[in-house]
Specification:
Helices cover 80% and strands 0% of the residues. It has 427 residues and is an all-alpha fold. It starts with a helix and ends in a 10-residue tail after the last helix.
């Protein structure tokens, strides 16, 4: 197995765990409480480290061997998933969850703590992996390598992982966490087999500047690049709206559609199929349309998912409509990520890649927990004001409004942001 495909296989295993976790974290929260604000706290715990730990992670990634950082992060996640699974298994069975608060505060707090730990490890792992990839491929192959990587991630995360989660939850609420622990352990074994020096600057062995100076250098590079700065803002707004909508999706499946965990898995799998297709054709789409036009179309595609949820009814017809919307949304999402990540890898100097990436993702992904908390508070407020059925759709009205405003403000910028580069020239 080549180093690139060993790396992709390891990433696939970790994303299998992430895909299972997408369903498992949310479902376990709804078994402890039906309060949207408390349900939001679990994914907030997963995403909050992106806001708190992102900048320090960038400095660490630029100072140390990125392969070893990946190993440490995946090992920590394996241990934490195992601990969460054992705790849930010991606490079963759960009583009927209350509409407000939770009658199992101890296990809820433990789950939240494990989620924070997983989130911290994920920040370090993802930053190290994204900055390590350029060392495994030629620069001209970045779009193709990123496309293949995103395809595998989406297959495992949104298709295999989410489908497996529905089946595993049907057997035991603790089982998904045990499977995740095993997946992370296998990833450790694969990454351990990679050979080479994966530091940002292998020649610089001991000399290091003060961390504040290194951090300022990374932030200054980001702020000094209009394209990178605006892409970070755009991605942050998309993540704010998307994660706000995802907070009540599990409740919409349960209460609006009247379906079980396999329906939620089907929605995620549909998104995964969209991501797979985008990863397979992304390099051809970019060559044909150009980076600017691709990002404009991806931005327009964000409107589809909230629109179909707002229009959907109960039962299987509503499920099918939501699956179609999520397929289109995730197809655009993978194209967006492939173009934006490849641009960063190509235009940011290797010695700065970790720090600039961390500053970029501080806003791009750090907006996610803010969206989740906003959705939880909004849903609780609207529930008191207009009833629960209306409240569950409130985050989708919010998401639709954010997407429309973002498109109106940034459409023209994206249309002229990327000049045609040699690899996009007609052939």
């Amino acid at each position: 197995m080549t180093p690139l495909y060993r790396f992709i296989a390891a990433t696939g295993l970790t994303n299998l765990g992430d895909g299972i976790a997408i369903i498992a974290w949310g479902w376990i929260a709804t078994q402890l409480t039906r309060d949207p604000l408390l349900i939001a706290l679990v994914p907030v715990a997963l995403k909050a480290p992106w806001f708190v730990f992102s900048l320090p992670a960038g400095i660490i990634v630029d100072r140390f061997d990125r392969r070893r950082l990946i190993l440490a992060a995946d090992l920590l996640r394996s241990i934490t998933y195992a601990a969460a699974g054992l705790a849930i298994w010991a606490a079963l069975p759960f009583d009927e969850p209350p509409l407000r608060g939770t009658d199992r505060p101890g296990i809820f707090a433990l789950i939240a703590f494990c989620a924070i730990t997983i989130g911290v490890a994920e920040v370090l792992r993802d930053n190290a992996a994204q900055t390590m990839l350029p060392a495994l491929v030629h620069e001209r192959d970045l779009e193709r390598a990123n496309g293949r990587l995103w395809s595998v991630e989406f297959v495992m995360n949104n298709f295999v992982g989410t489908a497996a989660a529905g089946l595993l939850l049907g057997l035991s609420l603790a089982l998904p966490f045990g499977v995740n622990a095993a997946a992370m352990a296998l990833s450790v074994a694969l990454v351990a087999g990679l050979r080479g020096d994966f530091r940002a600057d292998p020649q610089q062995q001991t000399e290091r500047r003060p961390w504040r100076e290194e951090l300022r250098e990374g932030i200054a590079f980001l702020l000094g690049s209009p394209i990178l700065r605006k892409l970070a803002i755009l991605t942050g707004m998309f993540n704010f709206a998307f994660e706000a909508m995802m907070i009540t999706l599990v409740l919409i499946v349960q209460e609006r559609l009247g379906l079980g965990p396999l329906a939620l898995s089907a929605i995620m799998a549909a998104g995964g199929l969209g991501g797979i297709l985008a990863g397979l054709v992304n390099d051809r789409v970019v060559r044909r349309l150009g980076r600017s036009r691709v990002l404009q179309y991806c931005m327009a595609a964000t409107l589809v998912f909230p629109a179909v949820v707002l229009l959907s009814g109960a039962g299987m017809p509503g499920l099918v409509l939501i699956c179609i919307g999520f397929f289109i949304s995730e197809f655009g999402g993978v194209l967006w990520n492939t173009v934006s990540v490849s641009y960063r890898q190509r235009h940011i100097p290797g010695r700065l890649l970790g720090r600039v990436n961390s500053a970029y993702r501080l806003f791009a992904i750090g907006m996610a927990p803010l969206g989740m908390l906003t959705a939880g508070l909004l849903t609780r407020f609207v529930s008191d004001l207009a009833g629960r059925p209306v409240a569950l759709l409130a985050p989708y009205w919010l998401g639709f409004a954010v997407f429309v405003c973002t498109i109106l403000v940034y459409w023209r910028f994206l249309g002229h942001a990327f000049p045609v580069e040699p690899d996009e020239a007609p052939r």
